[in-house]
Amino acid sequence: MSEVVFNYIGKNFIVVGASSGMGKQTAMELAQAGAHVLAIARSDKRLSSLQAIAPNLIDTAVIDVTTASDEQWEQTIRLFIEKYGKIDGAVYTAGTTGTTPLRLHDGADARNIMETGFWGAMKCLEIVTKKKYSKEGSSFVVFSSTAAYLGGKGMLVYSGTKAAVQAAVHSVAKEIAGRKLRINSISPGWVKTEMTGNYLDHMGQSSQEIEDGCFGKGNPEDVTGMVLFLLSNRARWITGVDFIVDGGFMYGK
Questions:
Q1: 198-248: per-residue pLDDT in tens?
Q2: Is 220 in contact with 191 (CB distance < 8 Å)?
Q3: Would 102 be classed as within a structural domain?
Q4: How far is CA 59 from CA 5, 50, 80, 156, in A?
């Protein structure tokens, strides 16, 4: 049993990238804490599986963050708040990776990584921080990565995308502070997810070849506790900050 229990009964949150990995874990934990959750992802099948876990608390919507229009975002969010009320925050975890070495990378892949991990996040924030959708004091969390600090072989665009997220969070925090809205980013280390597995496949590596931090490779639930804390009122004096949650990976480097 967790030593820290969150109570989000009566709260409403949006989780983007909720079909797998840390996004799915975040959506599940918010629902377990009593929140109404709008889970957004590209896979309707995976979203249906997630909704089945807590059908009375998890609503779903299919959105491709790389192509979604303002109208699609607004219509989706409007339906959710008409049902439950304004949101108390949102978490953006959507991202994709691939090998993008400086001298040999596919431009379309590179643009997709940036569109998904950065511009999709900025478009989402532009909408969800509007007064008509979010309550005063709402909290927003965007996923960055330790790759923003350390880079990595073949991770030119992914690392740049995650560094851009951190820089944007510093700026956005100042822009939205007037309504006591908060925004922070989280930089996980090596977490065992489908996306990291895909990266290893691209690189022709196995998980055993990846250098561990002090506490080894992580699982999604090793990161999501920080997400739930940052969404809570105990973090009401924290904004514009990146939090490294990596099991000591960077320390080990």
A1: 445 444 444 544 567 778 888 999 999 999 999 999 999 999 999 999 999
A2: yes
A3: yes
A4: 23, 9, 8, 36
Per the domain annotation, does 1 fall within a domain? no
Integer Cα distance of 150 and 3 in angstroms: 32
Return the amino acid letter for 96. Answer: T
**Structure-block tokens of residue 85:** 């009320």
Structure tokens at 154: 């073949």
Cα–Cα dist 45/83, whole Å? 23
- Residue 224 identity (one-letter amino acid): T
pLDDT reported for residue 107: 81
Q: Which amino acid is at 201?
A: D
The structure tokens listed for 23 are 């996004």
Hey, what amino acid is at 160? G
Please write the tens of the pLDDT for every residue from 52-79.
Answer: 999 999 999 999 999 999 999 999 999 9
Element (H, E) at 128: helix 120-128
Where would I find the H helices in 13-62? 21-32, 44-51
Give the Cα separation of 42 and 74 in Å (integer): 17
Q: What is the DSSP letter of 117?
A: I
CATH number at residue 125: 3.40.50.720
Q: Does the residue 3 lie in any domain?
A: no
Query: How many structural domains does the chain have?
Result: 1
Residue 211 lies in a domain: yes
Alpha-carbon distance of 133 to 127, in angstroms, equals 8
Place of tokens 């900025």: 122
Of 25-29, 60-64, 93-97, give the lowest mean pLDDT range. 93-97
